[in-house]
Amino acid sequence: MKTLLLFFSIFFINLCFCQEIETFNTVDGSKFLIYDPTSTIDQTPSGSGSNWSFSNLNRIGENTDNYSVPNADEQNTFQGTTEVLTVQQLSPPAERKLFLKHAANTTYITGATQEGITLNYSGENAYVGEFPMSFNTQNSGPVSGTFSYDGTNGTFTGTFTAEVDAHGNLSLSDNYGGNFNRGVTRLKVVQNLNLFVGVNTFVPVATVNQLSYYYYDSSEDNIAFRTNDVSLVSTLLGNQNSKSFEANNLYTLSVKTPQRLEGIVIYPNPVKDVTNIKIDKDINIVSLKILNLIGQTIYHTKTNPVDLPTNKLKRGLYFVVLETDSDRKYIKKIIKQ
Question: Which partner from 62, 184, 203, 219 sits 20 to 30 angstroms from 51, CA to CA?
Fold first, then answer.
């Protein structure tokens, strides 16, 4: 059951949600540093003009967010899924998946898996919200479905609440000298579940209470910092608690990877037809992608471009992601009029 608790503790660290949050997903390929704080992280400030300062972060690992289209088995198991987020943890090696359903501007969670554990919202999906989501927006509703863990199958019922509860300034620093100080908007997610086994659906074998925070970088449209606090209460196994803390390696605490590359200019922005790219001759681009709001790649080239084919894009917000041969990354938000 301890493994099941860990599953819930990291289940929702993959969500991406600014005073107005444009998109649900993190940017495809985002890398996150995993931390073990050396003292208590105080996340109680909420509302407009909040300030958070976390200077006690000790790096212990890293993982990467990758998005894909569900295969046939995944579509059959997690009905309605349109996209799969796979989080690949490097150290220690591990993999988990979050199954998402995007319908128009709304996003739902249909399920999650990790190393023999499956949570399937087959009865009632977890409704995250309609995007963009503004400050003080709250969505709350019931969830239900089935779970399996280490050969044990059962059902669950509960509630899921997603709320843009705060915006202000976030300051981070870690034991490698990395630092971050910028405006953010925070998404708060609360999930309370009752787990049942067998025909008894009146007395749960366990309850799960989860509180998650996502600090969204207002200038980069991606998560800067995300945390989870989950508790398991069981009459059989006693009480357990697990916490997780992660910071985006690109935008926040990476010393080796700056948030922007000097020598690259993308213009005009907003754009109507063609977007121009000016790149210094000493920079060699090995990959350029255009991503939509849900992280899907809609254009990809591996050569140094001089312009982007934005004339065929629909009106809206997009991300241009460039990578160099020195393993540096540049991400720019563009608006198609």
Answer: 62
Say which residues have a Cβ less than 8 Å from residue 188's Cβ, sequence separation at least 6.
46, 161, 162, 163, 164, 165, 166, 211, 212, 213
Residue pLDDT tens, the chain, 337 long: 545 555 555 555 555 444 777 777 788 888 888 888 988 899 999 999 999 999 888 888 888 888 999 999 999 999 999 999 998 887 667 888 999 999 888 999 999 998 777 899 999 999 999 988 999 999 999 999 998 877 788 999 999 999 999 999 999 988 776 778 889 999 999 999 999 988 777 888 888 899 999 998 877 778 889 998 988 787 764 677 788 899 987 655 543 333 345 677 888 877 877 888 888 877 888 888 887 766 677 888 887 777 888 888 887 777 788 888 877 777 777 878 7
Q: At residue 15, what is the residue type?
A: L
Residues shown for the chain? 337
Give CA–CA dist 217/224, Å, rounded: 5
Measure the CA–CA gap between 274 and 149, rounded to whole angstroms: 52
Q: How far is it, in rounded angstroms, from Cα 112 to Cα 315?
A: 32
What are residue 3's phi and psi, to 5 degrees? -65, -35
In which element (H, E) is residue 286 found? Answer: strand 285-291
* Contact yes or no for 191/214 (Cβ under 8 A): no
CATH architecture assigned to 264-336? Sandwich (2.60)
Q: What are the start and end residues of each CATH 2.60.40 domain in the chain?
A: 264-336
What whole-number distance in Å separates Cα of residue 65 and Cα of residue 231?
A: 25
**Cis peptide before 305, with omega less than 30 degrees from 0?**
no
pTM of this prediction?
Answer: 0.73
Separation between Cα atoms, residue 244 and residue 67, nearest integer Å: 22
Q: Report which residue type is found at 20.
A: E
